[in-house]
Amino acid sequence: MKLLSIAIPSYNSQDYLSHAVESLLPGGDEVEILIVNDGSKDDTAKIADDYERRYPGIVRAVHKENGGHGDAVMTGLANATGLYFKVVDSDDWVDAEAYPKVLECLRGFAAEENRIDMLVSNYIYDKVGAVHKHTMSYHHALPQGRVFGWEETKHFRKGQYMLMHSVIYRTQLLRDCGMTLPKHTFYVDELYVYIPLRNVEKMYYLDVDFYHYFIGRDDQSVQEQVMIRRIDQALLVNRLLVSSIDPFSIEDEHKRKYMLNYLEIVTTVSSVLLTKSGTEENLQKKKELWEFIEKENPKVYDTLRHRLMGRALHLPGKSGRDLTIGAYKIAQKIFGFN
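Below the sequence we write its predicted structure tokens.
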């Protein structure tokens, strides 16, 4: 069994796939690199096959019909043989200095009695043109240097939530948690990092800047105008997050609080983007989203609706919408997203 399986969902990634793979190769024989070619029409398949030929036993090329990012992640998980599982997007990469520290840490949890459910590390918003790269770290929220449970977690700041970039899950936990990711849908990474949390009990935080999250391609799914164009997919994921788990069924109050905060930030982003587009159609979609939440889980609705962001999102008229958008822009500057 490998120590770590790393899936690289790849669609038309010929221009940057090699950078991602090269950053992972120093992991050597302990690491399994699964290049999941999601029906690419460029030379992605050829590049994947070439790496498999050059690094047998380390790199595997997995070819499939196009099904979108989530389907590629699920295919990677189905093919993984590693004890732990990580997703690295094809336009991202890992840090050369932090990588061996991550592997050393995982090595310490390979024994049956020591296995953790989730390893958390920091990620860097590697934004094109930004002089200062914003790093998302968790050293104020999570204990360091030891295994811990949810009861030992502290306050997460707004925007300081865990993304796919910051987590490494135990592979079997991902298979056992009942997670399915919809095909041909963007933003499923939110489901990927959220649904398994229901099963996560033992965690470890390694305070290293491990993952470089590249932001800068014009067609990138997290670019604001792209997100607005694909808002229906974001709304689908938002609804699936709400319906997948009832946070109030979770006994641990710290885990429940984190999951409610996660729902809050995702719903806030969806609502702000709908507001920012300014069309009557999208304002109606915002209304329908909140109506769905109220119908699906009234307790979640009451919680989100009466928090500060929920109240701000429902301020009436154009002045209310302008205030919401202004607050969102401030958050962008503080947290460096989009």
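The radius of gyration is 20 Å.
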